[in-house]
Amino acid sequence: MMISHRFLRSLVSLSALAAVIAVGAGPAGADPVKCQRQIVRQLFRYKNTYLQKHRMCLEKENLGRIAGPCPDPATQLRLDYVNGKVVEAIERVCTLADIQALGYRSDCAYEAATTGIEGQCAALPVSDVATFTECLKCWKSAELSEFIAILFASHAVEECGGALDETSPQCSDLDCTTPLPVQRNLGDTGENDCQKGIARAGVRYLLQRERVLEACALKGGTSASCLADLTVQSRLQRAETAKETAIQRACGQRAPDPDPPFCCRTGMGNQCTVFATRDDCVTGGGDVMEGKTCNTSTNDCDPVGGPNQTITWWGYCPESDTCPGTPLASRDDLIACVDSSADAVVDELLCLQLPGGGWPCPTDSP
Length: 366
What we know:
- The structure is a single chain.
- The chain is mainly alpha-helical.
- The chain has two domains: about 30-255 and about 315-355, no CATH class; about 260-305, no CATH class.
- About 55% of the residues lie in helices and about 5% in strands.
- The chain has helices at about 5-25, 30-60, 75-95, 95-100, 115-120, 130-150, 155-160, 190-220, 225-230, 230-250, 280-285, 330-355, and strands spanning about 255, 260-265, 285-290, 290-295, 300-305, 310.
- A two-stranded parallel ribbon has the order 1-6.
- Strand 4 and strand 5 (about 300-305) form a beta hairpin.
- Helix 3 packs across helix 6 and helix 10 packs across helix 12.
- It is elongated.
- The chain starts with a helix and ends in a 13-residue tail after the last helix.
- The relative contact order is 0.11.
- Residues about 1-25 have low confidence and may be disordered.
């Protein structure tokens, strides 16, 4: 049977098209440098979304706009969407050979963890680019939730899924959590304005610090050389100053207090009764009045003002080498805790995604 030249050309064209489609379905070839950049870029996208969405959810819950717990279904839906896009983007550029050439582990046991979320992360398989990406995101999510729990002290237990130690199903363990801050919504108050300022400034600072150091690392810098670079130092100092200014503006002179004063109104007007806890007040039929105390001489709720205003927060910095550490007695102590906590989390995140020894993991993992 005769086959026309036109038919043969059609077969050749179809074969070429199939080859193009096959090439377009995955990475064209091994390129560890491009792969490393894509991993850093896409994981930063994931971290930014994770932090911002968790922050926004808790801000709404504090105001009573959603019932909680966070993340609520709408927040989780957005996180799932970005999660999928990040995996797809890394798969487009990286091969498993690239990942191995960059020095990443062939498993997910980045720490000797056996319980909680870290135990779950350590047990994850790494058999292809998608499972590798899920592995890194698991560890990073645990660190990011730990940081959110530090920032939102009055919702720490919720953010960490009910436990703050190594059994937590969502957070890397917090080091120093005693005394535990009162777990409650702050409402539409000046205290909540301070909380929003702390969270927004803390998240922004962490992301800025990581972006500056990642950019230096991708140019070949190590942790030591990048931190010694004067341009890097200048950018990090600007981020530091912006964080301090934002918290000062939002909080005034409010000092951190795990259990700020309250008054239990139980009668007409401002008549009050002293109760040990807010729950006892509610159980006893009273109304909790935040920022006030029960004057036992007049049995009236008196406002607490001036320099004695507080923010429901940690009494000791949860990210500490020793517990309980130094008490947090002032706004500046609070700012220093946000600073050291963010720095420790960034160190942990960088060591996960920049293997090879130039960005060593902290000896005392958060």
